[in-house]
Design goal:
Layout: H1 2-28, E1 34-39, H2 41-44, H3 54-66, E2 71-74, H4 82-95, E3 100-104, H5 121-125, H6 127-140, H7 157-172, H8 182-187, H9 193-199, H10 208-221, H11 229-232, H12 237-250, H13 262-276, H14 280-284, H15 299-302, H16 310-315, H17 321-330, H18 351-375, E4 379-383, H19 397-407, E5 411-413, H20 415-420, H21 437-454
Parallel strand pairs: 1-2, 1-3, 3-4, 4-5
Helix pairs in contact: 3-21, 4-18, 12-13, 18-19
């Protein structure tokens, strides 16, 4: 009986999709003159100067061709996986009808497991299962809106300051003891060197772990180190290096320095890079969700070896924010029971099984977005990631994005192939693998060309093949 129902649903689905495609595109003729860009840090624009992320560049191109009434909106946020993107976007879609949705998403699913469900591929691809899932969703949607409806999409400085104050009070009241390093708990928010010295008076010097905690705690909480001159003589040269590194963060003109220890060299390079990103690395470090892109692929096995050494940024395709993830955990800033719980995806020692399940998860989420967009006559453009490094853990997502575009006959921009064909492709990236201004400009111009070629906006609306 179920087999017969499955066959009937597939036949009806095919007829319904072809019969209603004209109606959906007529609905879209009255859509908002809006283009939505969905994604993670490659959409948000990490690596670009202000106003040079690809949605911002595309916005200028579209306005110049189609008029000032058009808007290109950047819905990208670093580290979002497809479930987080889907939840927030579908809330937006309930009351809005953009003309075009551009999707480059799924990279973060390979380390950010928020929303993961271990769904068997066969079950999840059966139309009967999807039918009951949609019925359940429609029955419960009015009573229970998506969780994302109550979340911030973008965190402003006020929100950051509130979270920082909350963190400060929690430390002071010792309400998160057990999840915070002993040295910080002992300091009780007093970062004077005298209190540091008193708390480790039995030691001749401060070890790396303590120095690391002090520097990151002081940066994240925006406290200042009080340095009585009399205390300086009580510590060896590594403390002087620490203080120099700390001062770099607040100094507009840092000086060149050579470090004998790789640890301090890494810390120095990290802070210089974070400074270029202004305050967003700092306030993102205080939100509850793990919104950081390109997480260190060996983080679980190398937690004691942080921050990353400079060569790790090149060799392991890492992002400097990985170090902050480590400190979020160390300082108790992550809600382990919700957003960053460990999901045991691997059923045996085969990495292929892990990748296969994440691939299916990405595909399922993207199909839901496509389904809802098509119901409202919204056109969709899919893009692959322009990865700089070879074979990162999230490399399979490009195959998923390509197959999705073919399955649903969607326009595709293969950024990965396009960038590999460039002369001197490294010139279009920053050190951690995100695009620079020139790289994002290439993406924006390619989108613009496809919009013109495929008539994706209503000014030149045509029916799809």
């Amino acid at each position: 009986m179920l087999l017969l129902l499955e066959i009937v649903l597939r036949i009806i689905g095919y007829i319904h999709e072809n019969k209603n495609i004209d109606k959906n595109y007529k609905l879209a003729e009255n859509a908002d003159k809006v283009i939505i860009c969905l994604g993670d840090s490659f959409t948000e624009g990490f690596g670009a100067s202000e106003g040079n992320d690809y949605p911002a560049v595309l916005n200028k191109l579209v306005k110049s061709e189609f008029g000032e009434e058009y808007q290109t909106l950047n819905f990208g946020q670093s580290g979002k996986n497809t479930t987080q993107i889907k939840e927030e976007f579908l809330v937006y879609l309930e009351n809005n009808t953009p003309e075009l949705v551009i999707i480059m998403a799924g990279s973060a699913n390979y380390w950010n497991y928020y929303g993961f469900e271990d769904r068997g591929k066969l079950l999840y691809n059966i139309r009967v299962f999807k039918l009951f899932k949609l019925l359940y969703k429609n029955l419960t949607q009015k009573q229970n809106k998506y969780i994302a409806a109550n979340k911030h999409v973008f965190y402003n400085l006020t929100y950051y300051n509130n979270r920082r104050s909350e963190f400060y009070l929690n430390i002071k009241s010792d309400s998160i003891s057990g999840r915070i390093s002993p040295i910080i708990k002992d300091l009780n928010c007093d970062i004077s060197l005298q209190s540091i010295f008193d708390s480790v008076s039995s030691k001749d010097t401060i070890d790396e772990t303590i120095i690391r905690d002090i520097i990151y705690y002081s940066i994240i909480t925006n406290n200042e180190l009080n340095i009585p001159s009399s205390d300086k003589n009580k510590f060896n040269h590594e403390l002087e290096q620490l203080l120099f590194i700390y001062n770099v963060y607040f100094d507009n003109n840092p000086k060149e320095i050579q470090f004998a220890d790789n640890y301090y060299s890494a810390l120095y390079n990290y802070i210089l890079f974070a400074k270029k990103q202004d305050i967003r690395y700092l306030y993102y470090s205080l939100v509850e969700d793990p919104y950081f892109e390109d997480s260190y692929k060996a983080l679980e096995s190398k937690i004691p070896i942080n921050p990353l050494l400079p060569q790790d940024f090149e060799n392991k395709a890492c992002c400097s924010a990985d170090t902050i993830i480590y400190y979020k955990q160390r300082f108790g800033l992550i809600n382990e029971n919700t957003y960053t719980q460990q999901v045991h995806i691997i059923e045996d020692n085969s990495r292929e099984i892990k990748t296969k399940k994440i691939n299916q998860w990405v595909e399922n989420d993207l199909e839901e977005i496509i389904y809802e967009c098509r119901n409202k006559g919204v056109k969709i453009l899919i893009m692959t990631y322009p990865y700089k490094f070879n074979n990162p853990i999230y490399q399979p997502v490009n195959s998923i994005l390509t197959s999705i575009s073919l399955k649903y006959k969607l326009s595709l921009i293969d950024n990965y192939t396009n960038f590999n064909k460039l002369n001197n492709p490294d010139d279009y990236y920053v050190a951690d693998g995100h695009c620079n201004d020139e790289g994002y400009s290439i993406i924006a111009n390619e989108i613009f060309n496809i919009i013109l070629e495929k008539n994706l906006l209503h000014k030149q609306l045509i029916k799809p093949d």
